[in-house]
Amino acid sequence: MAATRTGEAQHDGGPAPRTRRRQEQRRFRRRRIALWTAGVAGALVLVVVGLPLLLGLVRADALDATTVLGVEVGGLDGDELVAAIEAIAEERRADPVVVERGLVDGRDSGEPADVETTTGEVGYDLDVGLTVEAITRRGRQANPFVALGDHWRSLTSGLVVAPVEGIDAEALETWSEQAADELGKAPIEGAVAIDAEGVERTDPEPGIAVDAEALAAEVRPVALAPGGGTVEAELATVEPETTLAAVDEAVALAEEAIAGEVRLERGDGAIELSVAELAEVFSVERDGGELILDASAATLDELVDASRREAVERDPVDADISLSGGEVVIGESRDGVRFDAELAAEQLLAIAVGEEDRSATLDAELIAPDRSTADAEELGVTEQVSSFTTEFVAGQSRVTNIQLMADLVDGVLVEPGEEFSLNEHVGPRTEDKGFVGGGAIVRGEFVEQIGGGVSQFATTFYNAAYFGGYEILEHQPHSYYISRYPAGRESTLNYDTIDVRIRNNSPYGLLIDTSHTASSVTVSMWGTEWVEVESITGDRRNVVPGSVRDGFDITVTRILRFPDGREEREEEFTRYLPENG
User: Fold this and answer.
1) How far is CA 246 from CA 199, 203, 237, 249, 461, in A?
2) Are 521 and 390 in contact (CB under 8 A)?
3) pLDDT higher for 268 or 107?
């Protein structure tokens, strides 16, 4: 049996009691250290997290030592901070921007800098509200470490806050285009001026152009830089469209255009244009790179007034159809002439380039006659179609009126389809026209009036048209039967209530031919026979005795037989009143 030391306990399966106490003591110390460490860490967390949060809740101003674009704004809040940022914005918008002319295609333009502006004018703007918000947000961020960092910088090196700023693209573009115009110079185009003193020339010169888009790109960073700055604009040469050769050619034409007066003749007359007038009419206009000599028709139209045009103008003349020795004669038609400023201006241009002499036949507007010689021939007036004669007692005053009516109607041409009216053609019967007093029947009463007796011509005219087969549109028999006229086939006339109107319904022209003697008047219709006419006068009916002459009814029938076999019958009923003394 082994021996043991005095005082030592004997245990089965574990350490001695003394050893256990030491282990317990070590565990206790470790727990105390862990608790102390946790406490320190918690305190640090409170300091790190709570202090900035506390400061953020307590303070609403800018952190101390905060600057914006070098301006101290620390400690400011509310309206003071806003006013401070507004002052900074105003100062920034007033920063100068200078644009200098650079080289022109690599060469000195010879022009000094002449465009000065401010950042505000090129579109710079500082947003006061957003900048204030950016300042007051510093030190109050949700991330405590970031916030603590801002507080640390404000206590040590100072806190710099960038403003919220930018450039308005539209404003910059507008300014750049205006500046490009100021910096550039339009090329001088060649020109030629004409006046009464002569011809003056302007030779072409190159201009200078600035690329507005490139200028905007260069100005933008300068405007965003504090204090502004200077930009050198890129310049380029702009060649004129015209050339010296074009000017030389135009000068030669212009000098030829006013080398002397121009005479434009027509017939027996002429229009003369002086050098001074030509200088008003001619001008040199530019069309791209071309210089073109032009003559103003409008100016020429004003210069050549009505009195000057009379020398060269004439009215058109219709081809007339007349009778000579019982034969139809067709006269020659003639075109009219009207001064046309457009044609005359073109002619002046031709003279200027040497295509015509300075004295030439005037190019004018030709006015065709209403009836050319060919038109007259096509009317087919070749023969007498009908004729009718009435007689009267020579020497009476009424004879003057009958013969005057015949003279006024003689030679009238009525084209196919046209109408003819005695009243419309002759007009009122007045003493000024040569009519005299004579007997007439008005509303069934015998009266003395100017133009009395014209009914005899009306009756003669009516019968000639009747037997010519022409359409009778209007006529009115006398109230009392007059024995010198055929019963039921006569007509009275009074201006402007009773008329004789006919229509030329034939396919040919109708020429009215009149003649008279001391005791008779004749009306003949000339054209081409186109219808056969037969007239049947009926018996007198319903006779009413009168002391001077009886009244009665009568019907006259006109039969028209056409070449195609057609036949038309027209009945005309007339009632004559009895005449008592």
Assistant:
1) 15, 10, 20, 5, 76
2) yes
3) 268
Tokens 């914005």, residue located: 89
CA dist 417 and 164 (Å) reads 93
Residues 6+ positions from 26 with CB-CB distance below 8 Å: none
Label residue 22 by pLDDT band (50, 70, 90). Answer: low
Residues 6+ apart with CB under 8 A from 221: none
For 453, other C-beta atoms within 10 Å of its C-beta total 27
- Decide: helix, strand or coil at residue 536: strand
Beta bridge partners of residue 551, listed in sequence order: 544
pLDDT digits (tens, 9 = 90+) for 396-436: 999 999 999 999 999 999 999 999 999 999 999 999 999 99
Question: Which string of DSSP letters, residue by residue, matches 261-309?
Answer: -EEEEETTEEEEE-HHHHHHHEEEEEETTEEEEEE-HHHHHHHS-HHHH
Of residues 328, 334, 449, the one with CA closest to residue 382: 328
In the structure encoding, which two tokens stand for residue 501, read together? Answer: 């109107």
Q: What is the pLDDT of residues 316-363, one digit of tens each?
A: 999 999 999 999 999 999 999 999 999 999 999 999 888 788 999 999
User: How much is the pLDDT for 147?
Assistant: 94
Q: Is 291 exposed, middle or buried (0-12, 13-18, 19+ CB in 10 A)?
A: buried
Range list of H helices, 368-523: 373-378, 397-409, 422-426, 454-468
Q: Which residues contact 350 (CB under 8 A, 6 or more apart)?
A: 356
